[in-house]
Amino acid sequence: MKKTLIAGAAALLATPALAQNAPETTDRLQQIQEQIERLQSEVEYLKSNAQGARKEAAQEAVDVSNLKTAVSKYTWSGDLRYRYELIQDEPATNIDASSRQRDRIRLRFGVAAKVNDKINGRIQLSTVNTGDDNPRSTNQTLGEAWSRKSLGIDLAYVDWKAASFANVVLGKQPQPWIRTASYFWDGDLTPEGAAVKLATGPWSAGLYYTWLGERHANDTATASRAAGRTDAKMVGAQLAFRQPVGSVNLLGALGYFDITHVKDEVASATALAGTAASTCNINAAFSGSTNGNTTYDNNGAADSGCSALASDFNMVQALVQADFKLGRFPVTVFADYMKNTKAEVNPVANEKLDTATSFGITFNRAAAAGTWEIGYVYQVSEKDAIWGGFHDSDFNGGLTDGNGSVIKAAYVPATNWTLNGTYFMNTRFIDGVASGSTGRDRDYKRLQLDLNYKF
Q: CB within 8 A of 196, min separation 6: which ones?
């Protein structure tokens, strides 16, 4: 184009009529040429910027896609519970119940991560009880001079899909066995070890290997220690069957749980008269409490101050549950049974106290906003039917050797917000104290009112 303009300008200059105006024409052509060159530069600049913008937009799209892919691998969740609690525990020597009121909080926050198509992991933090010495509690009691509240690792595990019908779970994990609404197992327990879960059709099964207490220093050489068996573990298995029968969904399960190397181990200690502290070394599996199980003075020494567990625990559990509708209302009913096949004869009752039973019903479901439910559970836990470290920490004050009822209700006023109420009406020491003796059949009542928030 530039050449064409110059050629045209030359032709004009060659014309005699325009010869006298040649200088002006030359100047004008020069200006046109400069304008053309500026326009060409602007066009090139715009082309270059457009290409850069397209590259940046493409890179941003890639970055956003990568970010979405990374974020999609993680799922965050948590909940906060505020609880008012009233406890009325009848003392052994007074017909008036001792009373305690307190407010408590529980916080849990965690993340689930997709490692790949076969492996998922989860980490969860939670509040821990004061002293971090109770695996059955994630509550923090308010009213300790506004002190800081402790957090601990509540869950830390990986779940490997080993086959279409099999999962392997390793680490500190949720309870992998099937449970009902009974109070045989405390809901805050998070087992540590390995679990294999199998499922095909209506059948499922589980194998469990978990740790309770690793090697520790002991005070005397009992038979179990002499054999070098100081590690307390729980191994177990469960077989379950789910099948609709008409309009009823049935669930049945049979389980076996063997707690190793806890018999004859020191579960709790009391300082002897005239001493500042006990000389006993408590097995770490017990968290410093017998939790209602039968004990004896360590090595048979009277008033040794060291309470050792009298029984081994090989527990057989059978449960059945039915879910159906009554009109438009969903209903769940269950029955749960547990027996310790290794219980020793209790010296007070002069028999084995080895059986626990529970049954209950839940009417309606508190799920979406505006929904509600109500439930009832009755349970009997003989002294050595359940290892005390597993028994629910609220029913009967966390001890075996009790019975009674529980009434529960829940209402959802808004999404992710639930109101719960639970009232325990229990009787303690039903078979661990001689009949007619002071302290037998003592009332235990516990009211819990909860505000639960999920986020």
A: 166, 167, 168, 169, 206, 207
Q: Which value, in Å, is the radius of gyration of the alpha carbons in the chain?
A: 37
Could you count the other beta carbons within 10 Å of the beta carbon of residue 433?
18
Domain extents in the chain: 2-62, 73-454
- Model-level pTM? 0.82
- Separation of alpha carbons 205 and 167, rounded Å: 11
Question: pLDDT category, 279, cuts 50, 70, 90?
Answer: low
φ, ψ for residue 197, nearest 5 deg? -115, 125
Quote the strand ranges of 231-301, DSSP E. Answer: 232-245, 248-260, 266-269, 295-297
What is the pLDDT, as a whole number, of residue 409? 98
8 A C-beta contact, residue 39 and residue 46: no
Helix or strand run (H / E) with residue 19: helix 16-19
Within 8 A by CB and 6+ apart from 263, the residues are: 224, 309, 310, 311, 312, 313, 342
Which residue in the block uniquely carries the two structure tokens 């917000």?
417
Cα angle 413, 333, 178; round to 5: 90
Local structure of 224: helix, strand or coil = helix
pLDDT tens, residue by residue, 105-157:
999 999 999 989 999 999 999 999 876 678 999 999 999 899 999 999 999 99
Chain segment 218-248, per-residue pLDDT in tens: 544 444 444 455 788 999 999 999 999 999 9
> 325: which 2 tokens?
């509708």
Residue type, 269: A
Q: How far apart are CA 374 and CA 383, in angstroms?
A: 29
Give one DSSP letter per residue of 142-199, joined into a string. S-STT----EEEEEEEEEEEEETTEEEEEEE-S--S---SSSSS-TT---EEEEEEEE
- CATH for 73-454 is 2.40.160.10
